Fold these 4 entries.
Entry 1:
Amino acid sequence: MSSLRRRGAWALAASGLVLTLGWTSGAWRGAPAVYDGLPFNAEPYRYVNPPPGLEGNGAPSSVHITLRPAPHAGGTAFALSTSEAPPQASLIASDGDFLPAGQTVTVGIRPVPAPQLTPVGRPDGNVYQVYVEGGSLRPGSTYTIALRGTGAPGTPRLEHLATGHWQPLPTTHVPPAVYSAPAGSLGEFLLVLPLRGPLPAQGPNAGVVAAVLVVGILLATGALLWAIRRFRRPVAGEPFQR
Amino acid sequence: MITLRPSTGTADSGRVRPGAILGVLAATVLTRSVVAGTAPWSPAAAWAGVGALTVGGVWAARRWSAPGGMRPEDRLGPSLGRSLHRGSSWAWGAFGAIGLVLGPVVRRLADPPAPHGGQVVLWGATVTAVVLAEEAMVRGALWRAVQEAHGPGAALVVTTVAFAVMHAPLYGWHVLPLDLAVGAWLGGLRLVSGSVLAPTVAHLVADWAAW
């Protein structure tokens, strides 16, 4: 094996070890799913009531807009997003989705303290309230609400506090950490993680899967290195590096 | 120890100084950051980032492919045929891709994600443009320039750091350890395969796997 290949193998071994440790320890759980793409979870989650150690993340932001609604359903679409990067809460609607009491209506999203009524599952982030001042949501209209997850393990779903219960919404995952759903009423929204129960009988244990994959990759690496060393003949005059 | 290099005539005309490549890299990152500063996650910011990277990548590829800049093993055409014959660059690329997607695959097996929204074709095209531009700049032109001046070890270190730092302004400094490891992994593939093809394949597959 040439000096260059040896250096490369060392670089692969060291970086592969770091990557494996990072993924198996969960150190990069809040990091991008892989390495590029749009967008990534760039800013630590801002909590209304931060868990110990996360007080320094800052306070979550609110956003609102005052608009003159269209006189009919539909109209011009608009989007509202809180100022975190990426936003922790967003709303997409049309100005025709709102009925003003006067000339204008104010639509907003704000983080609120968690209500006494707790969902079945673990809250994944803040409760956000969608509100309208000076008007109301037009009956039959729907808008899109999107909340960002904290990066905690598990797949959250959006739930809406309505008629005294947290009700699940048909949630769509927008990679890597945003979850959106259509909503037909105002009020409180929250991402909820399923409760951790016993491992499903047919489901793979993540630790076992990780161990099997790590052993597999090590064996594959060894086989690849052996094969290259065994079968690769030097090419005469090969312009390999320097 | 000082090594005197004989003049190589026209071969030197295409040589690019490492500082020039790093300057172009910094300009692309700065462009992306300035636009993203007003609305970090707006489509305008995203397209500005992709556009700046693409311009930088095309510039780097042009300089890199000039006489004296690109070595035969880096040329996609001959390299493609030779690599298919030898299989090593593609094999290393496949191996590198497996290593990069291992963690996300385990995570997805443990916690299957909800159905995705969005446009897969647009995502794929965007990611492809970003990867090709990054590889042309970082492990193509920059690698070659640093290697010519300071050797392959320096090329590995400089490109690893550049790769990690260029991602930080947009994605946040908390991704630095991850991207340092990934940069070293891709640089290792460049070293063992002797071609930029292997890290490009690995990078592309890993980014596509993010969907």
Note: Chain B has one domain: 18-67+86-208.
Entry 2:
Amino acid sequence: MNEKRKKGSIGKILLWAILIIMAVIQIFPLIWLVDFSLCSSNEMFTSGLLVIPERIRWDNYVIAFRDGNVMHYLLNSIIINVLAVIIVIFISMMAAFACTRMHWKLRSFVMTLMLLGMMIPIHATLLPNYKIYNYFHITDTIWALLIPYVAFSLPQALFLMTGFLASIPKELEEAAVIDGCGVYRVVFQVIMPLLKPSISTVAIMTFLNNWNEFMMASTYLSTPKWKTLPFSVLEFTGQYSSNYAVQFAVMALSAAPAVIVYIVLNKHITKGVAMGAVKG
Amino acid sequence: MRKLYSNKKVILSLVAPGLLVFICAILAPICLSVYYGFTDYSGMGTPKFIGLQNYVELFHDAAFGRSLFNSFLLALGFIFIQHPIAIVVAAVLDKIGGKAESFFRCVYFIPNVISVAVIAYLWKFIYNPDFGLLNNILHAFGVKESVNFLSQQTAIYAVLVVLIWHGFGWGMLIYYTGIKNIDPVLYEAAAVDGAGWWTTFFHVTLPLMKPVIQINVTMAIISALKQMETVYLLTGGGPANSTQFAANYLYQQAFKAFRYGYGNAIGVVFIALCVAVTVILNTVFKEKEV
Amino acid sequence: MNKRVLALLMTGVMLAGVLTGCGGSSAGSNQSASNTEASADGEVTLKVFSNLPDRKNGQGLVEQMIIDDYMAENPNVKIEVEALDEEAYKTKFKAYAMDGMPDVVSIWGQPSFLDEVLDAGVLAELNEDDYKDYGFIAGSLEGFKKDGKLYGLPRNTDVQLIYYNQKMFDDNGWSVPTTYDELLKLVGDIKAAGIAPIAMDGGDGWPMATFLTDIMVKVAGTDYAKSVSDSVAAGNFDTPEFKQSVEVLKQLVDAGAFQTGYDAQDYGTAMNLFTNGQAAMFAMGSWECSMAKNEDIPEDIRTNIRAFTFPVIVGGKGGANDIAAWNGGGYAVAADSAVKDEAIKFLNYMYQPDKLSKYGWENGVGMSAQDQTSYLTGDETELQLSVMDMVKNATSVSGTPINDCGPATFKTVMESEIQGVSNGSESIDDFIKAIGEACK
């Protein structure tokens, strides 16, 4: 009995050890980042893992916030991502409904075609898309980001939506149709409320996919008008190449919104990702 | 109802937006890529049709070969380093329960929500030989010389570490969900049989996780192929192409070397590869299940 | 739980509706302003695309000062600047070249950059006669011409330098090397003192290539330009002078001349090593002379920065006064600019003798491509004066650095492979073969 308990406690210690080591590995670089962002540049060159700054330099953050255009870029990021999420939800829901419930010849072909999009590497379309957007004069506008963001989130969203739709019984719709509802009302008033869990999953996945994207943004945008949050970091490193501490501050600052939102909505996001990833 | 659900106009109105976006942003560019892949277009002026010349050259291009090899290395790294750790941690997390469970789950996932732009620059600093975190750790253990983690020989592994670190939370979360979905009755049965934690893990958890592992492995291979952002910012594909990846290489060729046509040829091969790998993996895994 | 998520989402939706409502309309009005040449009140928007992201120091500051002056003098003109650092700039430039260049752009008067750009006809032709009185140094316009027509104006005279920390040298009893052998010995001494000898931005590739240019000038002397252009034309770099130059570079690397990890570090990192006193020297062009006036750099380092060019190599044909220098960077106007006249007016304004040259000189940026003698203020840093003397006393000037002498593919391959050959993962013969093939 005694031995068994001992063995149990050793096992417990081992489990805790694994968890804590992994947590340190995952989080320590970020602590290091925040630590150095509060130092002066010269203090970084001292040895030792973390530095206790002589004076905490909040002014690094002031400079970072001002010269990194953080407010403007953050707002752009929010606008673009919220719009992308809404558009993706509506388009994918409508298409999913048409492809699973309604009767037409090409439906499986169209659905397979759109699902193929999941396999296409985003970056392979950078070159031709740049050419196309230029031709239509939409580079450096919000459309240059919205269109690809929606397009590349759509296949997965469609996949998730069709999956959920299949599990919803048809009886509800039938009742609605008998009551005289048209197809649009069925979709938006009957089906949409039932799809809530899948809508939140799609929203979270779309957000996570696009929030931190910068490759397309840096190719398709030129002026600060629609640049998104990652540009605070990308532009800053050139401007302040001789001041490391301020660079650290801008990095911490531009990572903060996503981290804070994640911590607050942790449970929902975890659930959404888990649902989306396992099904997708 | 059937009549209502067969209305062509309504169907079109529901499908058209999705189809339109898909055609404009995915299908049309691919067609354009195929076209430019057959030309020597520099990005300016007029393109000249040169047949398969780009593809012939691509076949002999050492840098492109290196990018595929790097993708292969990366996939191995994901499958044999990241995933085993992720599974074990997920299982431990499931076992520990309580407040700690959700706390650690949250911590592990945090790097995932941070932009690659921040991650790449952060790791550039971590690897810095003069004041970087890793070298400071080594110094603390008495190593005198500064180690250059991003050297020709080691840069690809350094990139690998960053990607494994960054994606760990994601992989872990999926395994964790898989484990949560396992019927507790099975564990109880194992416990009745007197199986210890490890035995249960190997004989109950792992076999039941097979479909989840398959999904994760497929995703790992695909994401290894698609890798671009981290490398673009961390090493730029260097030193001397040692950390080159297909997406980064096509970007460099098109926008740096004035070879838009060749860049598109790389793009076409790249797309074909991704589609082929996905299809092959899916069929292999499906056949196994039967 | 879903109720809360949904509620959040709905707030987001409404917020987005409000925001895009105003965002969209303002974007629309902006666009119409920049597309029409002159709206009712004569407003003109000029887009300037620059390779100088640091607008508070050095050359970028000078550029910004002139832009501010111009806007103050012409209240109807609004100038929008987009600035990226060199690599990103060139990438984006090519993307722009597909169609829709900004109005005024930074360019480089070198074949690797300009050949394709001029072939595509994206730059506006300038009237050379307009610039007779601008005091351009003889020959400095050549790189910006094609078939006798002028397409751009040079901004600087760039000299490849090795900056060093005078105080550190004095404290340790080191002296500026006059021969290559002395340099090798110096490298050994500095290394023994636990300091990185030369800070090198090896991650980018081009600084090593310009460094190699200086070596080759000392090996081949005045034959440098001909040797390189012959090699590019023949697609064969297997010449004794080139091979020896690469060997010198390799020897320096093997002796530990560059900092640990030089082949993966970027411009800022390399420069910071030097400006933080962790490296004794820094290999870079004369445009960084403004370090001496940059107040972000500790004073005891900033005031002690001096420079020399690569020392003489025994048996080489180049003397101490044969220098690696060129008129590379400059400005041009887009051919299809909707506000071309205003753009050219602004370009000419920049090159008025009391703008680029004067401001540049006062801010210690280095040498302009114009006659600057009338701007000596007596306030120059010693670094500035010494670089000016180098150019004044030069017996020969190299012209275009080696990586920029060939087509764009050659440049890309060279700048990537030079990392490999320097760090020993590629043999010198393979390097020579690879860059030769890239010319074909």
Note: The first strand of chain C starts at residue 44 and ends at 50.
Entry 3:
Amino acid sequence: MSTAEVSLDVARELRAICGDDKTRERPAGGVYVSPATAEEVAAIVRLANERRLSVGAAGGSTERGAVELNTDIVLHTAQLTEVEHYDHADLTVGVGAGMTVAQLNDVVGADNLMFGADPPLQERCTIGGLLSTAAHGPLRHGYGAVRDYCIGVRFVTGDGRRAKGGGRVVKNVAGYDLMKLLIGSYGTLAVITSASFKLFPRPRQTRTFLGEFAKANEAIAFRDRVVRSPLAPMCLELVSAGARKMMRPEMDEDAWVVCVRAAGSDAVLGRYRKELGTAISREVDGEGERTMWKVLGDFPRAMSGAGNIGPDVTLQVTGPPSETLAIVETVQTTAAESGAEVGMIGRAGVGHVQVTIRGVSQNLAEQVRTIVERLGQLRNGLSVKAVGAQNPWPVRPASLESMRAVKRALDPNNILRGREIA
Amino acid sequence: MRITARDFFAVLNSMRLMPSAAFVGELQRITGHDAVLDRPDDLMLYEYDAGVRKCTPVSVVFPQNTQQVAQIMKLASSAGFPLVARGAGTGLSGGAIAPEGGVVVAFARMNRILEVDAANMRAVVQPGVVNQQLSDNVAHLGLYFAPDPSSQKACTIGGNVAENSGGPHTLAYGVTVNHVTGLRVVLPSGEVVHFGGKAAECDGYDLTGFMVGSEGTVGIVTEITVRLLRRPERIATLLAIFETIDEGAKTVAAITAAGVTPAALEMLDGWTLRAVEAACHAGYPLDAGAVLLIELEGLAEQVEEQAEAVRAVCFEQRAREVRRAKDENERTLLWKGRKNAFAALGRLAPSYYSQDGVVPRTKIPAVLQFIGSVAEKYGLRIGNIFHAGDGNLHPLILFDPRDPAQLELVQVASRDILERCVAVGGSITGEHGVGLEKKNLMPLLFTDNDLDVMLSLRNAFNAAGVLNPGKLFPTTRMCRETSGPSTNPVLQAEGM
């Protein structure tokens, strides 16, 4: 059935499920729908199964815009914003998938707590989107990945079963760990409707120490020094000279920067100063520090609007930390050959580099393909994700056959096609 | 996709058709003659774990490499006998107990550390490596493996992966799944697959995360890539002594509310304390109502500030005294009492039943009171020694297993306690796993739909039930799909 036919017939039934004002036909065919409850989500997915229609979930469109989804039904999570439980003394919270990260921090901030993830564009990035893409920001270094503190998830499978995994307590091994399975599955297995998390105490004081280096290898050597020291910073971010130029084109400096964000008392911060030594050229705190981390965290998406609209392509590359230099050099060499401009920024302490490629010529896709190919030749064990792409994994995952088995178990009719697993 | 009753009985029948001597010969052909046990007196050693259930396997096989595991798996799938992987048998939920007519795949001979990659803080190990041995092996590099179950001197990393084991220090560092980045897995089809690797992120679905804690029902792990952590420069170990259990319990949430996340936060009630002290001589106060064992780790300046903050909170909550271990010897002694506590209780009764419920931290005082009332109601002795920081209770119920009436009473009391844990928003298991022990309690937590989704995932890999059948999924509700009849009295009583 083509999307054009869908809009006429199915829209009526979707209106019956979600109400007239929450259902809208798309100009290009297909239907936007915004369910208010998990039951409505399940009814939509069951309808899609009956009619063999494709469904894609959309949150804040910070990676792949809702307009880019070419599914018959685009399911907006915007109404799923309920706080299901908030137990501040237990440091746990459960919220709807449509709540944004910024809203969640508002809820818990009053009790001096914080959410552990700071993905790009937190005012728009929803909990559902964060989980689906396993997105992260600079806090990934000190607080772990969202898989480490998501303690429960409620969802509707591709075949319309409403179910959950985990629960509301911080330690729990009852049943399969469905949180792990759904986090980073890009909505191909289930539509997440709500999730529970462990929270963290908000640091009373933070300070950021900046080291500037002429070359990438010097910056990475400094990263190694920090990682091997007794210090345990909140954030340890590497910013390439190219990324700095993209952020502030007026700058003509050509240095790589390592940003070390620390939390603690004056005595603790003093110890950081002592350990980091003369490599530090500048310290930032207060409003300046907050602004700096927001700019770094939102790069490059703050500049290019929603998702990949615009001339940039962004790859999330993660390898063993010993591979960081090779990743950086491979990207730079390949980009130089094709004349592409690249900016790299990342959670260097855990081996992550976000590579943004801006094509100067028309063949951006070709340039990206070459970079991905060269990265693929580096060594096994590198993870490469293409931000916003239909297939998020440009290198065929080694576990593809097992992934397909899982996909068949939860979405046998291949209804969930906002993204594809190749 | 799903196995029907007819499929199941077909498997069961083919199982009976194959005389055990025939597949024992096949197993020997795969692994060598000295790597298969089938004499009844040898098999007796593999019929139990650290819990209370037993079932004698028909054979025990000791593979030496992944290829052999794959061949064993193919043989089991074609001949139709079930398999269960086993590490050291220290589990408490029956996860490694053989299914009826089953073969134990024991990992005692796959116990090598294959690689230590200090630069990336990773190690690649075989499943039979003992937890403590890995930390000992990398200690000279200033590194260690964080999950530290009380059985860490004996339990294997393969077992930790299957059960997603915890331990006292998982409060700050997380359970096993937070420390595994890659797996080599033999699927029931006999296919060998790799999930994840050394990188902190993986391509594709997080099947590593899904495998950890799947209790041997999805695949058999033959290689594990783990994260190693750097040893902290300073550790402060405090012993806070309280007159009453309630004061100790209230302090747990108060410490967290003060913004401090200790590396470990353990609680022992007075009765357990005295039992442990008599056996371990750890220096615990004999007249206390409860103690908290609190460990803080990290940067020296930070640890000192946190130690002061914790001390202040303890006194606010009416602690009688807060002691700090002066040196590594004192620290070791305090932990020796905690880690050997279960064994110490063996001096007081022929056996004990350890529960593993979890509650939100703020509910600890009320649930401990409830446990006291359960003990009174059934006339049982219940000690409490547990991971208070994450609300993971371990009520230890003493009993004599030779008296069937006592065992029954203990199970009724356990169910009461776990029902209360769930009622206050908690879980039936924090680190021991579901296994045989709690499978019929799963409906307390999960709806039919929840369980159905989990079952469809199990069946995506293990539809014929060749791997660890009769575990994890309730037989009371879903017997058609997951289990067959049993001749073992304990298992039969549970509907297996």
Note: Residues 304-309 of chain A have pLDDT under 50 and may be disordered.
Entry 4:
Amino acid sequence: MNSEEKFDVIIVGGGPSGLGAAYMLAKYGFNILVIERGGRIGSKNIFGGRIYSYAFKKIIDDFEKDAPIERWVRKERLSLMNDTDALTLELSVGNEYNNSFTTYLSTFLRWLAKRVEDLGAFILTGVKVDKLLIEDGKVTGVLADGDRFKANVVIDAEGINPILIRDARFREDWKPHEVAVGVKEVIKLPKNVIEERLNLGDDEGVAQLFIGYPTKYLPGGGFLYTNKETINIGIVVRLDHAIKNRISIYDLAEDFRQHPYIKNIVKGGSVIEYAAHLVPEVPQYNLDKLYGDGLLVVGDAAGFVLNMGFTIRGVDLAFWSGILAAEAVKKAHDEGKYTKETLSVYKTLLKDSFIIKEMQLHSKIPSILGNASLYDNYVKGIIDVLKNIYAIDDNPKKISKLMIDILHKHDLTLIDLMKDLLTVFMNV
Amino acid sequence: MSEKRLSVEERLGLNSFVIDKEPHIKVKYEVCRSCPEKPCLYVCPAHLYTLDQQGNLHFNYEGCLECGTCRIACPYGAVEWNYPKGGKGIHYQFE
């Protein structure tokens, strides 16, 4: 490729947000280049295990028929877990319910990249962008492996580590309280074993979140997702709490896998991969930091993740932010220039989209989820209450008194419980 | 095999890496010497930061999962963090 060639748009990063932007821009007929540092698309991408499909269905007509879907999530489980026990709530929906699915993100992204290339875009893999080229405060391209690539607009989809925009002083790096560390193991098991153990039909999957033990009772949680022949287990823990409590993060995944509840599910399976990735926890709401002269920021680099405690969304929001960035480029193109002013339409598009509406509706969630006792005495206390209610012996007991006594043992009162429940209810 | 607890080294051994000759992360050890907390020792998911018997910090970039945790956790900015060169580093296959 001739490095003197100038593109309409250069997209840094071939993840869900970068490819979303590329797909839409290629569809509009822009001359674009995607630069991906991984040796192949998807080799640097990690997620928990599930994708919500609505955003993709809006853009890609034959999405459900053609995308590499492993299993449709038809069982949602939320578990409180202590050192030995688990208390689980399960929503099991009938078939034909295709709201979210599990997949290998790498396979999924390669499928998406193929679609992007079919539309005429260039994707360069195994090339790292070293810095943004800036002339008179305007981003004019990138420097990658010593070559200069010029463009009217650069879309930064570099991911959770915002090195390029940090070095260009567009934003500051994350602070420990703004991110969580995720670790994950992929465990291989025969298809029928997964289906029998988790009560799943042929193309059905489970998405399960765990609170308590997986994070050593700190803010965050554990997860389990099923593919056809693998189970993903992992833990996401807030970095500030992990630092303060000196948590050995490298041990978390194995501690979780050795828990009696998980051990039975993955028995006989082989761990085939171990991964780690950061997750934005407290989104940076400053939308004015997501655009500049010749620059737009999308996906994890923009902090678009929504953690509601019982659902976690990242890939759909990343993809959609890419779509909106593409719309912004088109509008700026129609105006005839790619200045900070014309590209600020990205902010308007974001504000009008479900991404920001949803984040604003739930803006108090991060602080509620930061309440440390949710992960500690609540988990332990509630499991203890249920365990005692279900335990029968020759010692008759009144359930209400039992509840109050046990909650008290865990430094909880019924009033606290009601108050915290109400706080959660008022903010979801 | 899976019933056995796997050390972090054993788990890293399952991953595929294309190792560069040059480290992509540089640690300013002179800063670490006066760091009392050393959160890197426990927050790195690959356990790549260790102490020797003399109490000196060591870092091995070869098993790096490229998450960025060490950079953000370091209270003194001693971790000069960058992505590995194009095509180098961790090569995830089952994510």
Note: Chain A has three domains: 6-68+104-171+284-364, 177-280, 376-427.
